[in-house]
Design brief:
It comes from Allofournierella massiliensis. By secondary structure, the protein is an all-alpha fold. The chain has 23 helices and no strands. Helix 7 packs parallel to helix 23 and helix 15 runs parallel beside helix 17.
């Protein structure tokens, strides 16, 4: 058990660690000369700062709108976002069954299964990289009725599902912001979602990163909703809510591995929440029941899907023992070269005939890598900051590189969103300026947390801080890739919403929150 003073000290320590770690990362990126502080990029930063200042002054006006007018304004903004995303998706449409990327295995297998063909081509792929199986089956479950009704498996259907995922992610961000800062939070989050370019550029890239985004954002929203309304909910509603949250987090983990970090994030947040331990003592049986149902909800989804995967007869997983790539492989890969994907590491793991032999070989190489890194602090620091730059420096999460994987037809929007487009530099500069604005909100919240200058909604931002720190720790060990933090972009968008919507002083009745 921890007393209030200890909890307060630990919360400050978390804020301090967050600020120190990420500020140091961006400082080193700058010292390496990789921030690209061009005049145009700085001009975008200035324009966005002026816009944020103006929006912060005018956001209180939404509180004066009648309920009907507010619903019309907010609903119209969401409708605009969806229309823009659909337009972007159709203009950037890809035939991912011809993509030179993992998306080919996922989409081709899903569409062939939907047509009643059990494909042999990618059985070895799914035996090797089974982390993408859930994504493939979700697409199969969509395409199967589409094929039965239309006789076709056009790529536009997958794009439409992907757009829906990104749109739901934005809705969840707005919902969470509404819990923290009511109408102002919803309005601020909606504005940020409208200018958050990855929500448009990723529309045609149908993969685990985008399809996990609504599950992670939805888990965050659901958790904050339960935490915010716990005292007003009936016992039955609490238990149902915890079960639903468990199902949501379990699905997120199946879709993207780093969603697993939500589990320890919940635990750390609750352990440091003021009043948690006292409340736990008062209602231990109720808390244990809620925890049990949360775990059962997750277990039902995870084990239920795995049982379906092995027994549905749609994939031949007989090669699993010889082909499966264990988790130790990705840690090994993350501890050598520049920490990103490399074929040599993949070939090394693949040459061993069984899972246990692969694990043993990976662990031996991990030990060798660690011995080298720990004996050379300079090499260790170089690897850490190189991986951190890969993971955290790109405000567009490598979305422009994904745009030109397999375009059905190159359109005028490709010139803006494609990595080799005529106006790609302009898009990158604006996207990076928005990204820095979101990080400015994160650093401002961290400073407030360290100084104990609390504002309404800071308890939600504290949870976001834990999630981002967890991702930093995870990606420090794992393979480096700028797409991997994308499903947690909801946390950064909430920091940006706080910058625009959070009141300057703590409101009555919220002093118990982080």
């Amino acid at each position: 058990m921890t007393g209030p003073n200890v909890q307060a000290g630990l919360r400050r320590a978390v804020w301090l660690l967050f600020l120190a770690a990420f500020a140091c990362i961006f400082l080193v990126i700058g010292l390496r000369g990789h921030l690209d502080l061009s005049v145009r990029r700085l001009a975008f930063c200035a324009l966005l700062s002026a816009g944020a200042f103006a929006l912060r002054r005018f956001l209180p006006l939404v509180d004066r709108l009648s309920p009907g007018r507010w619903r019309a304004v907010f609903g119209g903004g969401l409708a605009l976002l969806l229309v823009l995303q659909l337009g972007s998706g159709f203009l950037l449409l890809q035939d991912l069954t011809t993509s030179p990327f993992d998306t080919e295995a996922v989409l081709r297998t899903a569409t062939e299964l939907a047509q009643g063909t059990v494909p042999a081509l990618y059985n070895d792929y799914f035996a090797s990289v089974d982390t993408n199986v859930f994504c493939m089956f979700v697409l199969y479950w969509m395409y199967r009725p589409v094929y039965l009704l239309t006789g076709a498996t056009a790529p536009a259907w997958a794009m439409g599902l992907n757009v829906l995922c990104l749109f739901i992610a934005a809705v969840c961000v707005c919902g969470a912001a509404g819990l923290l800062w009511v109408r102002r939070g919803k309005a601020a989050a909606l504005v940020l979602c409208l200018i958050f370019l990855p929500y448009y550029i990723f529309t045609a890239f149908v993969y685990t990163d985008t399809m996990a985004a609504p599950l992670v954002a939805g888990s965050l929203w659901a958790f904050l909703a339960l935490e915010n309304r716990w005292g007003r909910l009936s016992r039955r509603a609490r238990l149902l809510g915890c079960t639903g949250l468990g199902i949501l987090v379990g699905a997120a983990f199946l879709m993207k591995g780093n969603a697993l970090l939500l589990y320890p994030a919940f635990a750390v947040y609750l352990a440091l929440r003021p009043g948690f331990w006292a409340g736990l003592r008062r209602a231990l049986s109720s808390a244990l029941a809620a925890l049990l149902l949360f775990c059962l909800g997750s277990a039902a989804v995870i084990f239920g899907f795995n049982a379906y995967k092995w027994n549905c007869g749609l994939l031949d997983l007989s090669l699993y023992e010889s082909m499966h790539t264990p988790a130790t492989h990705w840690i090994m890969m993350g501890l050598e070269n520049d920490g990103a994907f490399n074929n040599e590491s993949f070939t090394y793991t693949g040459r061993y005939p069984t899972i246990e032999e692969k694990k043993a070989a990976n662990l031996a190489r991990i030990r060798t890598n660690l011995e080298h890194l720990l004996s050379s602090p300079q090499s260790l620091a170089w690897l850490f900051f190189t991986k951190a730059e890969t993971d955290w420096a790109d405000g567009l999460y490598t979305a422009p590189q994904m745009v030109n994987l397999a375009p059905v037809q190159r359109t005028w929007l490709h010139e803006w969103f494609c990595v080799d487009g005529t106006h790609a530099g302009l898009t990158a500069d604006f996207g990076q300026a928005v990204y820095w604005l979101l990080w400015a909100g994160a650093f401002a919240a961290a400073v407030r947390g360290i100084l104990n200058r609390r504002r309404t909604g800071d308890h939600g931002l504290f949870f976001c801080t834990i999630c981002l720190l967890g991702n930093l720790a995870f990606l420090t060990l794992w393979e480096a890739n700028a797409r991997y933090p994308f499903c947690y972009s909801c946390c950064l968008l909430l920091f940006g919403a706080a910058l625009l919507a959070a009141p300057r002083s703590e409101e009555q009745g919220t002093s118990h929150r982080v």
